[in-house]
Amino acid sequence: xxxGGIIYRSYASYQENKSYNVIKGTIPEFSTSDITxxxxxxxxxSKEAFPVKEDGYEVNKVTCDDEVQAEWDKENWSLKIIGNKxxxxxxxxxIDFTVTLSNYLIAKSAYDDSIVKEEHEATDQxxxxxxxxxxxxxxxxxNYVCLEENGQCTDEQLYQIIGVIPTQSSEGGPYxxxxxxxxxxxxxxxxxxxxxxxxxxxxxxxxxxxxxxxGTYWNEISTYKKYIDPVKWYLGAEIxxxxxxxxxFYKYERGNTGGYSSPNTIxxxxxxxxxxxxxxxxxxxxxxxxxxDQCLAAPIFIAxxxxxxxxxxxxxxxxxxxxxxxxxTPYRQEILACTSxxxxxxxxSVVASNQxxxxxxxxxxxxxxxxxxxxxxDNPYRVTMD
Length: 386
Prior knowledge:
The protein has helices at 101-108, 207-220, 246-253, 277-282, 292-296, 312-316; strands at 8-9, 34-41, 58-64, 69-73, 78-83, 90-98, 115-119, 132-136, 144-146, 158-167, 176-183, 189-191, 228-229, 231-234, 267-270, 325-332, 336-342, 345-350, 355-357, 361-364, 369-372, 381-384. By secondary structure, it is mostly beta strands. The strands form six sheets. Strands 7, 8, 9, 10, 11, 13, 20, 21 and 22 form a nine-stranded mixed beta sheet that branches. Strands 1-2-6-3 form a four-stranded mixed beta sheet, with no helix packed on it. It has a three-stranded antiparallel beta sheet with strand order 16-17-18. Strand 16 and strand 17 (336-342) form a beta hairpin. The protein is elongated, with a radius of gyration of 25 Å. The model is unreliable at 1-32, 333-339 and 342-349 (pLDDT under 50).
């Protein structure tokens, strides 16, 4: 038997190159054959760099001309010829690679400093099922995704990736790594509820949820609904103010106690939601003077990063810092309120009388595949599904 040692890689079309093959055992008759290797990603030609093992790719299929049989050696990341009945001297094979977007980003975190692995303690609602996720951090990471496989990407189809987060799409369902997105531009300033008399901070009772995001907005994105999973949105926070850390927000959000209204819903399963305060906190990267760990060890609630001496950089180096905008998490105070987010902080706003900016958020299905793109705004990630 024998295996290819040096394989020259072609991209959009075949290109013949001389190569020397490493022979294992006896030298076969076709030991000096040329090997030409082309590739596709999800059966589509790509101008991206040849897929590498470190990016989490799997091989979907190997096809060769002239009835040559071959298989992909994942361990050594090379092609192995296992059958050449016609003794073909010029072997041409195509490798079709595939990788889910979530696995692609997780693998990329090993060498991309803008994707950080975050470890959490167990929470009341998720237990130990959601203790590790991956977050985009920094002031301007390359985390754009376009929900359009081909053609020009419009503002409507452009989103930013918060991270890869284990979530359930149904009660009692498995926790799967899903990519969480947020709209890169505001959907406008909106009331939490359409009626000034509706002061409940329960997301399930909010018209922003029921009528706007999971009504009007959901209908507007009909062309790419197929990528989106309904998931559990956690509403279990009972935050009473004080010096709250990002890790504490994460725990409160997934707690078993609702907001001010009692009994308050602690989760809902739906398609579109909003960011959590912890999403905002975990998006910081600090800088050479204040590290990310130092930022996360400082409170972001009430005391505020932006007002702490030397900690303004925690807010500046955070791509989720925008204008005042609604977050999904309820907040308990003497007034009925929910959480809004601005400048690295999470503050309270009276539900009945305030309009805040809205940045819709949702989760992609676990089996959405990466197709191409580098994540920049001009060349966003493109995705596909079988």
